[in-house]
TrEMBL record, chain B:
This is Carbohydrate ABC transporter permease. Residues 90-291 form the ABC transmembrane type-1 domain. It is a multi-pass membrane protein. PANTHER family: ABC TRANSPORTER PERMEASE PROTEIN MG189-RELATED, ABC TRANSPORTER PERMEASE PROTEIN MG189-RELATED-RELATED. It comes from Pseudonocardia xinjiangensis.
Length: 283, 306
């Protein structure tokens, strides 16, 4: 029975997890004619003049997003947790959470409006900040921040709710005891609540990193919407796409995919180990 | 009764004092308010935008509502675009994400069950590989999966999207956690003593008890696949096979406000594009509204049991 139950999963895992990963590695080390290429493909894509800027774009975006996500989500969860009026807290959680329904292309489309000083809801604000046209708001220097804000807008609410739930799980006795010992709310937050949230923060960072290194749909749509102001090789993943489908250089594309895979798994591993995600003892 | 009231006041006090220490309730309220505006106003604006004509969207105030007639007109324009392409895209989206949802559940629930409750050779290896694959971002594998599909001659076929969507290690992991923590082994043993075959134990005892995890896996799978862009973008080159998310790109490049070269007979107004955005997320939004409470319970419960 075991085999019948687990068999379909193993087949799918081989077909869409392991074989593609192995295939990508094999391609990355092969020449177009199939011979062994050593590190040639990696050297070619890394020395491509578009590669370093793309890495830089994604790295800046990731740092901005991760900082925003961890700091603001934790602050929001702590403040929300202190709200005593039940319906206010419930309503706020729901409203923070709703943008999560707009992931991917839909969220980008909405933000194309928001970033448009002529038509969108933020028009007066953008004009006050000196942005008169859509092309000015999405000038290349702003993009990492723009993508980080979009990602935060869609993703943060779910994490606020998760952190809020984790805060609720802290036993009242623990909080009470700290208060009796004379701890003020800031001390309670730093010494008790934050350490107990550590696993969740690490978990959030892992998922955010894995998703963030793959930046694709946002710059692709912006590139279309801006008729070229945003280049179509802005992110690393876009560059891989260009290699595969415009240059028909699947070996180069695979080399980029492998680099991305290694970097994102390595980054995740750091957070998994440092965050104690696999510790068995209860916090 | 007295203990109950005591308990209640105690609990209320234990939460109530927090805010004052953060530099007063005011500061907390400001933080919550600013973020309320940040999260909610774009959505509110979008819902207003769909009731206006393209011109009014630029001319009138951002939050001045339009009319029902405006909404109807946008609706007509949207579904008349490229002689009904939007309808096709929506049907495709439903087909791809529901197809993948059914397959995902059929595959991951039994797999999680066996991994949790049956000791078989290779079990540990399978668990470790599942964890590793979970950490691999699926978009990194899109290009090799594309090459695989083109070897099989499946590029352009809905299966090229549905099958990869159905591989969902996170779902297996959730089912595994659930079955190993929430179902007492005694219960299954009792069913076996009563003469149930292994298959009956699974179908009659385990599956009915697994409703929460089935809902959780189903929710994540549906939302993720509905919103997926990269895989269908690569696999399905013909407009008639696009899901809605990829179709949005076509609408965007037919909007003169963003792409001046698109001015022509089949061009899209800004407000029509706004309506397309709303329609593209409506199913997910509905699922979100209904699942909020249970989802939160599920997420945090899973966390504490680990």
């Amino acid at each position: 029975m075991g085999l019948a139950f687990v068999g379909p999963y193993v087949v799918l895992m081989l077909a869409f997890g392991i074989i593609p990963a192995v295939y990508a590695v094999a391609l990355a080390f092969s020449r177009a004619d199939g011979g062994f290429a050593g590190l040639d493909n990696f050297v070619r894509v890394i020395t491509d003049f578009r590669f370093l800027p793309a890495v830089q774009h994604v790295a800046v975006y990731l740092v901005l997003w991760l900082v925003m996500l961890t700091v603001l989500v934790v602050v929001l969860a702590l403040v929300l947790h202190a709200v005593t009026t039940r319906w206010v807290s419930r309503a706020l959680r729901l409203l923070y959470y709703l943008p999560g329904a707009l992931a991917g292309a839909s969220a980008v489309l909405l933000w194309l409006f928001v970033l448009n000083p002529d038509a969108g809801p933020a028009g007066p604000l953008l004009k006050a900040m000196g942005f008169e046209t859509f092309a000015q708001t999405i000038q290349p220097g702003n993009l990492s921040l723009v993508f980080a804000v979009i990602a935060f807008w869609t993703g943060a609410g779910q994490w606020v709710i998760v952190m809020y739930g984790a805060l609720n799980n802290i036993p009242t006795e623990v909080m009470e005891a700290a208060r009796i010992d004379g701890a003020n709310p800031v001390q309670i937050a730093l010494r008790i609540q934050l350490p107990l949230l550590r696993k969740w923060i690490a978990y959030m960072a892992v998922l955010a990193l894995a998703a963030g290194t793959q930046l694709f749909v946002e710059p692709t749509l912006l590139s279309q919407a801006s008729t070229g102001v945003v280049p179509n090789d802005y992110s690393v993943n876009q560059l891989a796409y260009q290699y595969a489908f415009n240059l028909s250089d699947f070996n180069g594309a695979a080399a980029i995919a492998v680099l991305l895979l290694v970097v994102s798994v390595a980054l995740s591993a750091v957070f998994v180990l440092r965050g104690g995600l696999f510790d068995t003892e209860e916090p | 009764m007295t203990t109950q009231t005591l308990e209640r006041t105690r609990r209320r006090r234990s939460r109530g004092t927090d805010l004052s220490g953060w530099g007063g309730r005011g500061l907390g309220a400001v933080v919550l308010g600013v973020f309320l505006v940040f999260f909610a106003v774009p959505l509110l604006w979008l819902l207003i935008a769909v009731t206006k004509s393209g011109g009014d969207l630029v001319r009138s105030g951002a939050f001045t509502p339009g009319s029902v007639a405006g909404l109807v007109e946008n609706w007509h324009d949207l579904f008349a675009f490229q002689s009904g392409a939007v309808g096709t895209w929506l049907v495709n989206s439903v087909m791809y994400s529901l197809g993948a949802l059914v397959l995902t559940l059929l595959v991951s629930v039994p797999a999680g069950y066996v991994l949790a409750l049956v000791r078989f050779p290779g079990r540990r290896l399978l668990l470790v590989v599942t964890l590793v694959v979970m950490l691999m971002p699926s978009t990194a594998l899109v290009l090799p999966v594309f090459l695989e599909m083109s070897l099989l001659g499946l590029v352009g076929n809905p299966l090229s999207v549905i099958l990869p969507f159905s591989f969902y290690p996170f779902g297996v992991y959730l089912a595994f956690i659930y079955f190993s923590t929430s179902i007492p082994a005694d219960l299954l043993a009792a069913a076996r003593l009563d003469g149930c075959s292994e298959m009956q134990v699974f179908l009659r005892v385990a599956v009915p008890l697994a409703a929460p995890v089935v809902a959780l896996v189903g929710f994540f799978s549906f939302v993720q696949n509905w919103n997926n862009y990269f895989l269908p973008f690569v696999m399905l080159p013909a407009s008639s096979t696009y899901p809605m998310q990829v179709g949005l790109t076509t609408l965007l490049s037919s909007t003169p406000a963003f792409n001046p070269s698109a001015a022509g007979s089949d061009s899209v107004q800004l407000s029509t594009l706004a309506l397309a955005t709303v329609i593209s997320v409506l199913p997910v939004l509905v699922v979100f509204l209904f699942s909020q409470r249970f989802l939160v319970a599920g997420l945090t419960a899973g966390g504490t049991k680990e």
